[in-house]
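Case study B.
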Amino acid sequence: MAQAVLTMTDRGLYCAAGDFFIDPWRPVDRALITHGHADHARPGHRHYLCTDGCMPVMRHRLGDIVCETVRYGEMRRIGDAEVSFHPAGHVPGSAQIRVAVGGEIWVVSGDYKVEDDGLSEAFEPLRCHTFISECTFGLPVFHWQRQAVVADQINRWWARNMAEGRVSLLAAYSLGKAQRLLHLLDPAIGPILTHAAVENTNAVLRAQGVPLPDTIRITPDLDRKAHPGALIVAPPAVLGSPWARRFGALSTGYASGWMQMRGVRRRRAADRGFVISDHADWDGLLGAIKATGAEKLYLTHGYTDIFTRYLRDQGHDAHVLATEYGGEDGAEAEETGDAA
Amino acid sequence: MKRFAALFTVIDQTTRTSEKVAALADYFSSAPDPDKLWTIAIFSGRRPKRAVTTTRLRDWAAEAAGIPLWLFEESYAVVGDLAETIALVLPPAQSASDDDLSHWINLLRGLIDSDDEARRVAVLAAWDRLDTTERLVFNKLLTGGFRMGVSQKLMTRALAQATGRDEAELAHRLMGEWSPDTTSFTALIEAENAAADLSRPYPFCLAYGVEDLAALGPAADWLAEWKWDGIRAQVIVRGGALHVWSRGEELMTDRFPELARLATDLPDGTVLDGELVAWDGAAPLPFAALQKRITRKVVPKKLLAEAPVILLAYDLLEAGGADLRATPLSERRALLDRILAAVPQDAPVQASPLILALDWEDLGAARGKARQMKAEGLMIKRLSSPYHVGRKRGDWWKWKLDPLTIDAVMIYAQAGHGRRANLFTDFTFAVWQGNELVPFTKAYSGLTDAEFGQITQWVRRNTLQRFGPVRQVTPHHVFEIAFEGIQESPRHKSGIALRFPRMLRWRQDKTVDQADTLDHLKALLAQYG
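Model:
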């Protein structure tokens, strides 16, 4: 029986061979970070390690941290562990972390999606003995359409709003989803305005060469009537707020995998729900897991109980791994994991 | 089905009434007649009869999706809507279909007389020819739960726009006993109406809650009546026959055999609007007495003697076969009183008494006596008003009593359905009896979505035990529960039953030991029960 490469502690996933943690939720000496979302990259660690593509956003969000970077695929030796970062396809710079100790290989998926969104580095399947996978959308009701189809829905909605004299407000998480949407928008339709939270992240990503269309930052002195038919990209919190009402006649859209469910869509009180996620859908999860060839599976984030039971039914050695990333089930993940 | 699915999509994607009406009007202008007729039927609650049990649908959906049944059930628990869950788990359709709505409805009606295997084959074949939205609509038709944010009123307005006919006239045409089998779009909507069905009721006039008494002008322009806690009903005597309709357009004639004599007690060509109440000879019995009658299609003699029903009539819609709805209320009421004065003393109908008041203050005092009168409050109606179609602001107002309230502790929570799937919204509340918390009511409404979100987070972290979908939680949160009435009930553990319980306020300022006691609840029962 091979030694466990990673173990669960009250601070997060720990590698004894290299004396480091992966995405820990309490302060530690050395933290390896999969990506910059707040539930994975937390403040207070003494030393950070992440990909070079992930670092600028981490700096932007966490301030003056001690942070070392690696390129995708670059092998690092930490203590007795060999560590490398590989594209997770979740957001630009996001990674799966592969840890090898004495020939035993474990992979921590972080958050991932398998469709190439053209902006994030495409998900790379990794062979391993043990795979720790997220399963935010681990139910057979979640099936994503190709992003070109959703892009077409969004652009048509925007063009129609413009024709009817309405501004379009598209709500999306400010790191990752917002930029992916910007990338999918057709700038020929009209001007694109951004909320400060989105634009600040845009600036960081543009500086590292991520191709984004031209956008206009919404500042307090911006003439709101000067951009008729504009599309605004803003964080979900602005839906129904006085900030949003100042733009006059609006049509609101919400872009998230949760929009697959009518109940959630109606609760969000947006006019339109666009089903687009930076997480893998049901088939994406099953495909990714199969490609690892892993003998042992640990599941975090989302419908872990149900998904794990299904994998066991299918003959896998699968276990729930309690973490503090997402929540116990979908509704909580919906509230904390806005990146969905 | 594509046209109807597109209509469903537009309606589902907007919260604006004007857009819904426009989409419906567009549909009514372009769809084939049989589809229009079915659409009217569906949106007025006339669904095709259920041909397949939901148990079988779950089996077949799991089979087609290639997933175990337990996983389908877990998915359903998360999604909260069976038709939607099925639509989402199925693999992509292998082909498409241009068949219209009527085709699919006729197909599923044909399943009623088929055996199980034929049903299975037909349903699986249908799923394989429909896209996700079409499947959702088809499944809604199969399961019979068709609610999609279109009221009958909205549908009627759209129909008026599409046909150029008067909305009120259309509303009347859509009332009563018809189904797509007994009529056609032309007969229902367009034909000259001379031979209209004798049983057809008028659309009910509905009231809003009063907001500002002062804005109503002089009290002398208004009449006031008790707002009874019974069943709103329209009693029709035409062609020597009696028909009793509920507000939900259900024909209730046979449930109230004691009303049968009204066919001869009242003059032919009479239509009354009023409230059915269980009557003790002088005053209404509590609603619970009436409730026992509602569920019974055949009424045992004993129950008939214990809870005889009468109509407290307050409006006259037709007399001598003439439609009086445009006549001012003052005249309708005077004629009503004349007609009722001529019926036999023991007839199961009485005029609902008018409340004489000199001014609003006087009326306020009368309202204070409503509970004593076994009423829920007052109705205030403008003397010069016509009998409107549906809910219109301005002429009819309800002035209800403030609800009774009690502070109670939440002890169980359960997730809601549909829009509230994934949120804990259904709670059980308890009051103290010594050191024990005794459950006495459930409540589902009254909190904002944000509050439900907050309590949902809390429930997840404070679950003591699970009983299937129900979670027992730490007794911690106190809610002010409002209700309209309180009655003794041997069926409840606490011995009492509340009418219309809901959460008035989340009392975050109170701790559990400050919640009310069962004795307090019993005192309310003694006073108001």
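The interface with chain B takes residues 139-143, 260-264, 266-267, 269, 271-272, 303, 306, 309-310, 313, 327-332, 334-335 of chain A (CB under 8 Å). The remaining cases will be described in the next quarterly update.
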